[in-house]
Write a structure and sequence with these properties.
With 176 residues, this protein is mostly helical. 69% of the residues lie in helices and 3% in strands. A two-stranded antiparallel sheet has the order 1-2. Helix 7 runs antiparallel to helix 8. 5% of the residues are buried.
Length: 176
């Protein structure tokens, strides 16, 4: 049976995603959050307005995604924390897997001896897998990730499309 090849470059080139994330990869975390805009500017109610047409929505989104990118990253982190706190079983499974991997790694390849019982690292990894996979499926991580994508998309695209550009910036581009 032949595999279906999806040309991702054809899709992303039309949406202009190629160079949008290059600056994110090249920056460190401290320099990334150094240009956070103040909350009074990020939530300026005087600049909220309904866009006249889709062309204006596109220009606003393009401008605001670059201008408020650090603030949008903070919104994503806050929504991620909220989604984990709302799904405590998923948070428990994450801590269980991370703690289990750390604990098994601390053994340094030696067996775990508890009184008369003895478990090899292979048995410990298998036990962790047998416990974590059903709990992980039950914790519904896919629905949590889909909720996170939807909530982040609505929040960020909604803010970017309704937040007007600063007046001095709008006039400087029209004069050219």
């Amino acid at each position: 049976m032949a595999r279906i090849q999806i040309p991702l470059e054809a899709l992303t080139s039309r949406l202009n995603f190629q160079g949008r994330f290059d600056s994110v990869r090249s920056q460190s975390i401290t320099s990334r959050f150094a240009n956070l805009k103040p909350i009074s500017e990020f939530l300026d109610l005087k600049r909220l307005s309904k866009p006249a047409n889709f062309s204006e929505v596109q220009t606003r989104v393009n401008y605001n995604l670059g201008y408020f990118s650090s603030n949008y990253a903070v919104v994503f982190v806050m929504l991620s924390i909220y989604s984990l706190l709302a799904n405590l079983l998923l948070l428990f499974v994450i801590f269980l897997v991370v703690g289990g991997m750390y604990g098994i790694g601390k053994l340094g390849g030696q067996d775990l001896e508890l009184g008369v019982a003895r478990a090899t690292t292979s048995q410990l990894y298998t036990a962790l897998l047998v416990i974590a996979v059903p709990l992980g499926i039950w914790a519904s991580p896919i629905s949590t990730v889909l909720w996170l994508i939807g909530a982040t998309g609505v929040s960020i695209i909604g803010h970017a499309s309704f937040m007007d550009r600063p007046i001095e910036n709008a006039f400087s581009e029209e004069a050219v």
